[in-house]
Structure formats: structure tokens, C-alpha cells
Design a protein that fits this description.
164 residues, alpha+beta, eight-stranded antiparallel beta sheet, single chain, Pnp Oxidase, Chain A, 4 helices, two-stranded antiparallel sheet
Length: 164
């Protein structure tokens, strides 16, 4: 494991997020993984932050509402099949860890486990949640929400960042 400062890999990380990355959330009764394709990384409230967006219609939304933390894993190898599975199947119905051949490893700083895959990993403590209010959404973006299942934005303070 090789530690790095979160901003040293920001460009590479955000480029991969566009192709797909993994968000792991641990609720009271279950741990789930989902694909994310949108994220922001930067500094707010004088803290390093990784912001992820989860639609209210997703099973992960229920779990992250209960959670105090989340982890994000940015794969370094070809994981298109796993990205597709975690982005198209629901943790309500499928054990995505089993279907993808994923195992978890113990986190360093938060309660949520980390995917044991090659890549960059971020452990984040949730410090702010903000539901999207459609009245403030630019009309040009409304087409992204045909089912009106808007995202909630989760701002996670990055407590650990490392490469496996």
C-alpha cells in the first residue's frame, strides 16, 4: 500500500471516474457497492473533500443515509464488466460483491470497508449532505432526470488516500 496526498492524483482519478469508479457504503444491515460516474474533488470548509452523487431511487441511497462514511475505489485495471454490473444491478436483489468477485479489506480511518482491487482508494467521513433542489437546477440539465429521481450530494472529508 502506498499513501499519497489526495490532490496528487486528482486529475487521473477524475478522468477514471468518467469511465466508472466504485462507491462502497455500509448501512446498518448491509454493505453495498455501486458504480459512480460523477464526482468532485477539492477543498471546502478547509478540508480535502470528495463529493459523490447518489440518486434517491438507488438502493445505495438508503444505506448512505444511515452511514457516517463511504469509500471510493478508482480501478487501475480493466474492470468494465464489474463497472457495468455495479451500475446496472441493484444491491436490493443481487450480491454485487459475489457477482463481481470482489472482496473487502479493513479501512484505516473510517468504518466503511474498502474494495480490495488495484487502484486508488479514498476513505471519507460524511460531513455534509445536500439533496438536489430542482428549482435551482439549470433547465438544460433537467433531461438528466426524466424520472425526477434527483441526486443527493454527499461531501466526504478525505481521511485516507492510498494506492493498492
Amino acid at each position: 500500500m502506498k499513501k499519497f496526498r489526495y490532490h496528487e492524483k486528482a486529475g487521473e482519478v477524475l478522468k477514471q471516474v468518467e469511465e466508472g469508479a466504485f462507491l462502497v457504503v455500509e448501512g446498518k444491515e448491509k454493505t453495498n457497492v455501486m458504480t459512480i460516474g460523477w464526482a468532485l474533488m477539492g477543498v471546502i470548509w478547509r478540508r480535502p473533500v470528495l463529493m459523490v452523487a447518489v440518486r434517491t431511487s438507488r438502493y445505495t441511497y438508503k444505506l448512505i443515509q444511515e452511514a457516517e462514511s463511504f469509500t471510493v475505489s478508482i480501478p487501475s485495471g480493466d474492470m468494465k464488466r464489474q463497472i457495468d454490473i455495479c451500475g446496472s444491478k441493484s444491491g436490493r436483489d443481487v450480491d454485487k460483491f459475489k457477482e463481481c468477485g470482489f472482496s473487502l479489506t479493513k479501512p484505516q480511518k473510517v468504518a466503511t470497508p474498502v474494495l480490495k482491487i488495484p487502484g486508488y482508494h479514498f476513505e471519507c467521513r460524511i460531513i455534509y449532505k445536500a439533496p438536489t433542489d430542482p428549482k435551482f437546477l439549470a433547465p438544460a440539465l433537467e433531461n438528466l432526470y426524466p424520472a425526477k429521481d434527483y441526486h443527493t450530494l454527499y461531501f466526504g472529508e478525505i481521511l485516507a488516500s492510498y494506492q493498492i
